[in-house]
TrEMBL record:
Family designation: Belongs to the class-IV pyridoxal-phosphate-dependent aminotransferase family.
Keyword Disulfide bond in annotation: no
Pfam families the UniProt entry points to: Aminotran_4
Enzyme Commission (EC) number: 2.6.1.42
Record keywords, A-Z: Amino-acid biosynthesis, Aminotransferase, Branched-chain amino acid biosynthesis, Pyridoxal phosphate, Transferase
Gene name per UniProt: ilvE
Lineage, opening ranks: Bacteria, Bacillati, Bacillota, Bacilli, Bacillales
Cofactors required: pyridoxal 5'-phosphate
Keyword Ion transport appears in the UniProt entry: no
SUPFAM superfamilies linked to this entry: D-aminoacid aminotransferase-like PLP-dependent enzymes (SSF56752)
Protein name (record): Branched-chain-amino-acid aminotransferase
Amino acid sequence: MSSQWIFLSGRFVKKEEATVSVYDHGFLYGDGVFEGIRVYSGNIFKLEEHLNRLYDSAQSIMLNVPYSMEEMAAIIVGTVQKNELDSAYIRVVVSRGPGNLGLDPSHCSKPQVVVIAEELNMFPKELYDKGLRVGSVASRRNRPDVLSPQVKSLNYLNNILVKMEANQAGVDEALMLNDQGYVTEGSADNIFIVKKGTIYTPPVYLGALEGITRNAIIDLAKEHGYTLEEKPFTRHDVYVADEVFLTGTAVEVIAVVDVDSRKIADGKPGKVTKHLLSKFRELVTTDGVSCYPDVKLEKAY
Ligand code: PMP
């Protein structure tokens, strides 16, 4: 297999040589932002939306991304092309860069930009057919007035802790509530429920990241005539739903068939979930930025 190339602050380096300083505040403090993006058959799905969210996250934490959005788009396309990938997951990281051991980011002279593209299957294929088991966890989603869930910061410890809680409970994914007990989202995915033909998802102000897959599913649902409401709901509403599913760049669209040991309806992926998944699969190869033919990149870095 040919080697994997990583974009690391201005050049492509081999995976084995792609290292950053131990003084990088991204490493020391989780000081930075990131994005996860997918390429489907040469199409970078919703690239513009991902770039907007990356730059919004950076703006929120006063981090200057050292490239324009157009340059960053070219770098991302370039990383996919350099690795000769057709379908892949892309991770974009912008850290505050190397500083000293103090918290003060004014000592960090240069943000570091890393782009990794590689194949990724989040869950084994059979789980997409069978559906996931999900468990609600004790750790709450961090409050929007502390570190806003809209900032996709490198500080994902909260999400890692809930994933560990899910692992320990023997389920596939965690369900996070906010401090008032309303359902927010999974560790790295948004949640939808279906009840009597209406689709519900929590409003993001309750404490969910405004997922790009979430928004794509909202658009698809409306386009295909479903009634969809962004409305607060509790665990009880999830337990008695006709269908439950999760959305995210990594997980895509995946059914949930068991929540806190309550079987959801007949315990099989539901009709609406399957329909939206099939429409999503059609969308992903068209809505975005093509890596082919030649998007010229040299200018970007
Ligand atoms: N919530 C969280 C906490 C996430 O990290 C992600 C993954 N980015 C999502 C939801 C899903 O968002 P998206 O569809 O944009 O990947």
